[in-house]
Automatic annotation (TrEMBL):
A Pfam family it matches: Snurportin1
Start-end of Acidic residues biased regions: 68-87
Organism the protein comes from: Cebus imitator (Panamanian white-faced capuchin)
Stretches for region Disordered: 1-44, 67-87
Alphabetically ordered keywords of this record: Transport
Keyword Transport belongs to the record: yes
Domain IBB: 11-73
GO biological process, one term: protein import into nucleus
Entry GO CC: cytoplasm; nucleus
InterPro entries: Importin-a_IBB, Snurportin-1, Snurportin-1_N
PROSITE patterns (alphabetical): IBB
Name of the featured protein: RNA U transporter 1
Length: 127
């Protein structure tokens, strides 16, 4: 018993500093890892660059349509063909079989019961 009390006395430390409510929970880091703003800015920067390039491609395409100038377009098509070889094939979604189809009313019909009312009571029976 004395060994147990000595072990508990040496392992437990109670002080106001360690147990304050303002201190973060010791296991908080296991559940929520904090990300720095640098890690978040990299994907955002990539997304902004992608948006910028797509917008530029769209504007150039619209400009070519307006001016009917398609010179240099062949080289871009060849580049796209090279890029397509490296792309991964995407799996097409299966069509929804029952989408936009009416539900058959027969399946939802409630069986007809012979109902007669007498006073405040309802009596049900077969036809």
């Amino acid at each position: 018993m004395e060994e147990l009390s000595r072990a508990l006395a040496s392992s437990f430390s109670v002080s106001e500093d360690l147990n304050s409510t303002a201190a973060p929970h010791p296991r908080l880091s296991q559940y929520k890892s904090k990300f720095s703003s640098l890690e978040q800015s990299e994907p955002r920067q990539r997304l902004l660059e992608l948006q910028k390039s797509k917008r530029l491609d769209y504007v150039n395409h619209a400009r070519r349509l307006a001016e009917d100038d398609w010179t240099g377009m062949e080289s871009e098509e060849e580049d796209k063909k090279d890029d397509e070889e490296m792309d991964i094939d995407t799996v097409e979604k299966l069509p929804k079989r029952y989408a936009n189809q009416p539900l058959i009313a027969k399946l939802l019909a409630v069986p007809v019961l012979h109902i007669s009312w007498k006073g405040n009571h309802m009596l049900c029976g077969p036809l």
